[in-house]
Amino acid sequence: MFRLTVPVNAADHSIGPAPAAVVVVEYGDFECPNCKQAAPAVKLLLRHFTGRIRFVYRHFPLEEVHPQALQAAEAAESAGGQGKFWPMHDLLFDNQPHLKLPQLRNYAEELQIDIARYAAEMDDHLYLQRIREHMQSGGESGVRHTPTFFVDGRIQDVSFGLRSLFDAVDAALRESMKS
Fold first, then answer.
1. How would residue 178 be classed by pLDDT, with cut points 50, 70 and 90?
2. DSSP character for 62?
C-alpha cells in the first residue's frame, strides 16, 4: 500500500484547520477531466466535514496528455504567491478547455493580482521547481494518474467513485476519536 512520502507542510496550499483530525491530500492536474469532476465533490467533502479535515492540493500535471496543465499549475502558484491560489484553482477548473497563456493571464487579471509580477513569474518559471517537487513526491508516493487522493497519508482508491473518499475520511475521523 502506498503512503505519502512528503508530509503536509506549511508550504502546501490547504483549506481547513492545521490541527485537523484528518488530512486529505489531492495530487491533481488542472487539465484533467477527472480532476474537474472531482472538484465539486471535494467542496462537498469540505462542507460535510467542516472544521474536522484539512484539504491539501498538490500539482501533478500529466504533460504528455495535457499540454496546458503545467502552465496552468504555474499560473495557480503565481496567484498563490499573491494569496489567490484557491480562487485561481476554481477558475482553472471552471474554464478547463481554456488554459492557454493569454487566457491564464485573463484569469489573473480577473482576480486582480499584480499583473506585472504575475507576468514576470510566468516568464521566469518561478514556481516550476515547486511543481516538479510535487510531481516527484507524488511519483514516490505511488501517484500514477489524477486525481489521486491520500487520507492521513494512505492512498485512497477512488476509481469506483468518490464515495470511497467520503467513507475513508469518515472512518479516519472515527478512528481519531478513539485515540
1. confident
2. -
Q: Is the pTM of this model over 0.85?
A: yes
On the 0-12 / 13-18 / 19+ scale of CB atoms within 10 A, 89 is: buried
Task: Give the three cell numbers for residue 99.
Answer: 488554459
Pairing of strands 148-151, 22-28: antiparallel
Alpha-carbon torsion angle 162, 166, 169, 171, nearest 10: -120
- Whole-number Å distance between alpha carbons of 17 and 101: 34
Sign of CA dihedral 174, 12, 27, 110: positive
Q: If residue 154 lies in a helix (H) or strand (E), which one and from where to where? A: strand 154-156
Give the domains, in start order, of the chain with CATH numbers.
13-178 (3.40.30.10)
Q: Cα 138 vs. chain centroid, distance in angstroms?
A: 12
> What are the cell numbers at 92?
482553472
